[in-house]
Every structure is written in C-alpha cells, then in structure tokens.
Amino acid sequence: MNARIDERNDGLRSGAEIPGGPAAPATPPAKDASVGALLKELAHEVPSLLRKEVALAKSELRENLDATKQGLAAVSTGGAVTLGGFIVLLLSAVYALSNVVQPWLAALIVGGITFLIGLAMVGSGKKKFEAQSLKPDRTMDALHKDKAALQERTR
Q1: Where is the composition biased (Basic and acidic residues) (predicted)?
Q2: How far is CA 29 from the centre of its chain?
Q3: Considering the chain, what percentage of its residues have pLDDT values greater than 70?
Q4: In sequence order, which residues have a C-beta less than 8 Å from that of residue 85 and are 6 or more positions away?
C-alpha cells in the first residue's frame, strides 16, 4: 500500500494532472515571452479551462442527481412501510372498538373517520395547486413598480 502512495506522490511531484483538479499549463511560460506570445497562449488555455469547468459542472450535477434518486427511493420505500404500519394501526383500532360495538360498526366508524380526515387533507392540498396560488405575486408587484418608475423617468 505504501508503494502505491509513493507512486501517486511521485506522479504529483512530476507534474501529473490531478483528477478533478486544475490542469498544469501545457507549456511553461518563458520568462522573456512577448505580450503577443502570452496572449496567444492565453487564447489556447481559456477554452480548455472552460471545457474542464463545464465537465466538472456536469459531473457534479450527475452526482447530485444520483444522490437525489437514492433519497427518493429511500423516501418511497419508507412511505410504503409507513402505509403498512398505518393500516395495521387502523385495524387495531377496529379490533379495539369491536369490544364496545359490533365489528361491522367498528370498521364503519374507523373507516368513516379515516375517510373524512383524508378528504380534508386532499382539500387543503388541492388549494395549493390552484392557478391563483401559483401566480408569482411579489414578482408581478415588483415588475409593476419598475414599470411605473421607468414611465415617470421618461416623462
């Protein structure tokens, strides 16, 4: 293992490029290089730098997307397990209530209450999807103020 580390360190000392890190200049600038030569070298290196920056951004986005996919899978699995637990809890509520009333009536009561709670949750969630709630009110107000200010300045 130490030999592998030494090889890597030797590679770094010899000017090898670090993966994901800044690239070593293609040609070391001469001490007495003219301004034209320096500008020419700069013109060759800037596009390369931009390509590497774009590649780095793509790589980071891919990594973030993969992490998001893994998180979504975990949340989905957790939601499915939670749903199973909720169903068992509702069933236990039916069993407990069946000690007081008939089993069919206990199931009807628990199912009805759960249904009403679900309807209330769907109704409140539905309001968030209405067109009026999606309208960017603050942005629209700021644009109207900007428009009014520009109209006053042009008068």
Answers
A1: 1-11
A2: 42
A3: 74
A4: none
- 102 shares its domain with 150: yes
Q: How confident is the model at residue 33 (pLDDT cuts 50, 70, 90)?
A: confident
The number of domains in the chain is 2
Residues present in the chain in total:
155
Q: Is the pTM of this model over 0.70?
A: no
* C-alpha–C-alpha distance, residues 69 and 59, integer Å: 15
CA dist., res. 88 & res. 99, Å (int): 17
Look at residue 9 and tell me if it is in a domain: no
Calpha distance 94→112 (Å, rounded): 12
Axis crossing angle, helix 103-127 with helix 35-97, rounded to the nearest 10: 150
In a domain, 86, yes or no: no
